[in-house]
Amino acid sequence: MPDEGRTGPHGGGGNADVPEIERPGGIDRRSLLKLVGAGALGAGAAAVLSSSAGASSVLRSARSSRLTSAKSGTIHIGYITPRTGALAGFAESDPFVLKKIRSTSQYHKGITVGGKRYSVKITVADSQSTTNRAAQVAQQLALSTKVDLILTANAPETTNPVASAAEQYHTPCLATVVPWESWYAGLGGDPLEPTKTFKYCTVFFFGMKEFAGTFLPMWERVQRETKADKVFAGMYPNDADGNAFREGFPPFAEKLGYTFVTGGSYTDGTSTYSSMIGKFKSGNCTFYSNAPLPPTFNTMWKQAITEGYKPKLATVAKVLLFPSTVAALGKLAENIATDAWWTPFSPYKSSLDGTTTHALAKEWQDSSGNLWWQSLGSSYSLFEVAVEAFKAVDTPHDHAAVAAALHKVHYTGMCGPIDFANGPAPGVGIILPVGVQWKPGKKIFGKKFPWEPFVVDNALNKHVKITGDLVAGTY
Fold first, then answer.
1. 4 φ, ψ to 5°?
2. Which CATH number characterizes residue 419's domain?
């Protein structure tokens, strides 16, 4: 069952947080969309979402229950993230973020909607890093728990089946930390012609344009300094993120004169990469791009170094985003670069209580003993956007109205400005990342850590301060 905590004038401010519920390279656009959809929503998850023969009657019953519950004066929010499994690193800061959110006036005293103050109850669920479980808990939150809004985060293995369930069961849903193309294609849209609107689903993050705008400036600087060949390796798995990268990222690099060498589409969890590594070595791939699951990358990278593949710069997505995953590689992670969608080095602050990025990161460090975490900002902003949407409607229990309000949110908060009405696709808000590189840590907020992500490139977001020098890899 989900974990539930109620805040506000009608609740006791519960803080229980542990959930139990929970193109180039030989692929055309039609194949891409088919693959991305398959990767985003596995067969088991699809079966869960299509197994309700009486879906229409269930929806009618749920709608009736919501109208009845309107008198209760409570807004019920579901929150689904991968607290366990291969993607658990993304959600490690969830308990801290939820405690912070529940302490804000809006969530502790209640949100005013249509002139009436409503208490807020948050039900937390663990997707267990699998599409099947994500779909199951989303269905339960929509139909049994009857939440007014589902928030979800951290890679398409969680966000996409949750969004699919929300769309099917007419429940407003907001996602983050998923490339918008992966999310959009997972719902059945075409990222190359993004005109379709999904009535109940929205997302904020960024996509291939922003990944390119973060990684390629770093490639160009290293290439100029080292005179390295403009050839890059692509390690992209056969899943939602991998297929989106394979189709969407290389064209940006090719416009700058880079040649793409694909390692081939592989299955998540593959244990031997010698053939791929040999291709990268023979192709003289001096730059490296990927988007795999963290355990997959650790296996491949160790094999690559052992077999003598050492690019001038490795830029990775979906992996090495957090200190805990870097620790698994140790010295082999030094100078690997990745994207950072949130850091303590920007001027942004909470729209709920004014907490700055610096203050949030320091409080996390002081309370947990851990270095700042990117998910602090993105998870926090989910709850900011929720408040913006609820304030714009007459009743929080009108799912169509709340969903429509989400599509119109335009505000500035912990992750900076987000505008859902003017993104690259309907219901998509963009936040701008920066490039970071992992290096031995210096003292930050009074404590030194073994490894730290230094901001080495802010080409896309000049508001974020540079904190380190970009250097070619010494793997």
1. -125, 140
2. 3.40.50.2300
Same domain, 395 and 440: no
E runs forming strands in 267-308? 287-290
388: left (phi over 0), alpha (psi -120 to 50) or beta: alpha
DSSP 237: B
Q: Token pair for residue 435?
A: 């490039």
Q: Which of 263, 329, 261, 342 is nearest to 294 (CA)?
A: 329
Whether residues 282 and 222 fall in one domain: yes
Reply yes or no on whether the pLDDT at 250 is more than 80: yes
Q: Is the dihedral of CA 35, 82, 340, 293 positive or negative?
A: negative
Give the Cβ contact number of residue 65 at 10 Å: 13
Same domain, 142 and 245: no
- Regarding whether 141 and 7 lie in a shared domain, the answer is yes
pLDDT-derived band at 463, boundaries 50, 70, 90: very high
Per-residue model confidence as pLDDT tens digits over 139-159: 999 999 999 999 999 999 999
* Whole-number Cα distances in Å, 452 to 358, 364, 472: 15, 15, 17
The domain in which residue 326 lies consists of 209-340+434-457
Same domain, 287 and 171: no
Return the minimum-mean-pLDDT range out of 22-31, 217-226, 297-306, 444-453: 22-31
Q: How many independent structural domains does the chain possess?
A: 2
Q: Is 264 left (phi over 0), alpha (psi -120 to 50) or beta?
A: left
Q: Which of these, 289, 240, 308, 297, lies nearest to 270 by C-alpha position?
A: 297
Tell me the pLDDT tens digit for each residue of 378-433. Answer: 999 999 999 999 999 999 999 999 999 999 999 999 999 999 999 999 999 999 99
pTM: 0.87
